[in-house]
């Protein structure tokens, strides 16, 4: 569309505003109530222009073909200046200081402090750890309110008061700290006036002198691109990158604000070695590494290489994981290496590989923008993947239908067309029930099933027994809801499945993934561009990558099987050694081997197993039974406290490399700071340990390690640091440097042996734990928004003010029966151990069910969890534990 701006023709897309046209013409007008990400409201009039003779607000006026816009003309210029001057007239003079949008605008328009008023003396709200409000600076543009509603989807803010008294306030009234705010920081980013800021940073003032480092968030698997602003070797602020491929200018409380741990007083800065006194004493690196090297050499000599095992970290980079698994295979000579994918999405890797051929999600996240029906299963993205959760919600508010399958009333469930609340551990029955309805009602893609899928007759036979009524009996989901959900998914043109640990962390987690994948196959909604396939919301920042890099006991980099001579041969040629040809130990098997006296060395990198692995008392026993435990950590975690050697590690803000996010994108990680004291990046530690054993692992830099990995694993061969520096993000598979990676998989054929999608005929089998008279309640465990896993990092940040304890959610009826009041301290007992939690009475959980997180080591939640695990992958059954409540103590 062509319009004329000050006599010059400019082309803008259909639907663009005059403001966009003005900017396209290279001109600027102030736009104080406008943010490109938000619905325009046209309230400040600072963007006034003349359109075909009339004065209009450019931000809300659509550009029409042939429109003639006048910007630089005395009269409209004066109107714009008047509008800004009017706004400033009620603000205190300091509103014009600093580098914020309003202050800059005033300088450009020649408006000085003499135009300011006195300020209304409305005071501040400094109650919140991350968001500060100076009411006197609020210009009531409403950008923060719209940001919170439209981008974050939280609706925590409102404008109150009339006329010039109007000011932003939490919708709940009262203090910001007590509001629904989830600290995404979006309001601070959009505020033009400095009314909303973050502590220590006056509006805009950070922009100038601070160093800026583009990196990728090291908390969850969303993979937000962040700009880290540093001053004097400290993080001053973290800003979401507007051009971040996944986050597009958005972030969450953790990536943005939870960096206080970096300079925590108890950060590990020197290696520690357990001395003759039995205490961990600081030593030099040489001494610590020599001790570990001796231990490894002795173990290999006396008990063979398989008496050494390592747990690699999904918090670490690809290059670090690559190097560590290479160390274990090449230097030690064992496949005993695993990562926390074992505890998390190993059933996804197994299930998706069996169904489709590859171990990752099937599509690119942006494709959810096209989906018309979202099926969100056993995932709580509003808390665990907040940037994804916000995007999903926006899609739903934009018209997509939403089915949520979760026993709890999680954040998204409030907006669901259908909320299915299965009994924990009954997913396979639920998914088979949905598939039954799809088949029974003909809501399937016959062509796709004929030409691109296998296994329909076997599935149909199993589904016969899964009538809605029978499924209702098993799952507790009313038959009518099941049918309604199946029809929504079955009739959608472009349905999407996103799922989480509510599917995988079960005794039959792999069956859960496979029977969930059945739904997409039946509908032809995977590998066809119709819909957004089947996508796990993978957890840790680099859990996808840790597995991609081969930090797994049965798989080499790129998922070649260690038992496959061809895959092994490829790695042997690159590494120049013979490799062990039998599977190594999985994490739970490592602990079992330790308890049995068969494991001599356990090297644990970035995992607080004593807090986060199931059946914690047995984990502690394993650590105590193993003669040499090494913990490579940022902090003296519960695991590190029990280790014989503690090696201080750098965190994601202090190192160089790459992560792979949940939709298979490689992105760069760059150091914004130096590690404290003598702490070193895991990359350097692995190299140094190899050197202490007289070995050279090659690949001296992270870039070289990724390049070498591409030679072992052709699916990554086209990805390099240089390329990522140029392109930002590249998804795998990406075998060639000159071609884009494949974000939408299987468009021509599936990667299974026969090229077909494999339907799975799996019957429902009950969970490992069941309630009985002794343990009458079912505990589900999972996440809360402000904290991250073991909490070692988020508890050392302002997040602890937002959420200071692990709460146990219980239904009012169960609370009444047990005589529990909100806030009571409770002792919870299972057949395996005890935990202490603080009661939170809520109808978010159903009667008979409890929910808690595991973010505070002191609560000992994982002492409750059983040793049951997925029969295929050993992923723990974290989601189902029978417990009882002990008398509350107040
Ligand atoms: N704030 C925050 N974010 C995080 C993390 C964190 O600790 N804190 N951790 C990261 C990691 S490592 C991971 S893996 C991801 C996890 O992200 P999610 O998978 O979203 O997290 P969870 O809360 O563990 O579990 C998801 C849901 O499963 C439901 N559920 C339990 N049992 C069943 C069942 O039988 N059927 C169904 N349908 N649902 C069930 C639970 O009620 C819960 O709401 O989050 C990542 N992001
Ligand atoms: N009850 C229950 N338990 C669970 C779960 C559940 O749903 N319920 N979920 C499970 C899941 S999905 C997961 S992924 C696990 C996560 O469990 P963990 O992996 O144990 O938890 P994290 O807190 O993510 O990180 C572990 C440690 O790594 C350290 N660290 C961080 N960055 C680095 C680094 O770059 N290098 C090194 N060397 N160390 C670093 C941190 O200080 C932290 O102590 O928890 C599992 N435990
Ligand atoms: S959504 Fe995940 S990746 Fe993004 S800022 Fe939050 S923790 Fe980091
Ligand atoms: S920016 Fe157009 S009216 Fe405020
Ligand atoms: Mo995880």
Automatic annotation (TrEMBL):
Organism of this sequence: Nonomuraea coxensis DSM 45129
4Fe-4S Mo/W bis-MGD-type domain sequence ranges: 210-266
Gene3D superfamilies recorded: 2.40.40.20, 3.10.20.740, 3.30.70.20, 3.40.50.740, ADC-like domains, Dimethylsulfoxide Reductase, domain 2
UniProt-listed InterPro entries: 2Fe-2S_ferredoxin-like_sf (IPR036010), 2Fe-2S_ferredoxin-type (IPR001041), 4Fe4S_Fe-S-bd (IPR017896), 4Fe4S_Fe_S_CS (IPR017900), Asp_de-COase-like_dom_sf (IPR009010), Formate_Dh-H_N (IPR041924), Formate_DH_asu (IPR006478), MoPterin_dinucl-bd_dom (IPR006657)
Ranges for domain 2Fe-2S ferredoxin-type: 1-75
Keywords: 4Fe-4S, Iron, Iron-sulfur, Metal-binding, Oxidoreductase, Repeat
Family membership noted in the UniProt record: In the C-terminal section; belongs to the prokaryotic molybdopterin-containing oxidoreductase family.
Chain ranges of the 4Fe-4S ferredoxin-type domain: 129-160, 173-201
GO molecular function terms listed in the Swiss-Prot or TrEMBL record: formate dehydrogenase (NAD+) activity
Protein name: Formate dehydrogenase
UniProt-listed Pfam families: Fer2_4, Fer4_Nqo3, Molybdop_Fe4S4, Molybdopterin, Molydop_binding
E.C. no: 1.17.1.9
Classification via SUPFAM superfamilies: 2Fe-2S ferredoxin-like (SSF54292), 4Fe-4S ferredoxins (SSF54862), ADC-like (SSF50692), Formate dehydrogenase/DMSO reductase, domains 1-3 (SSF53706)
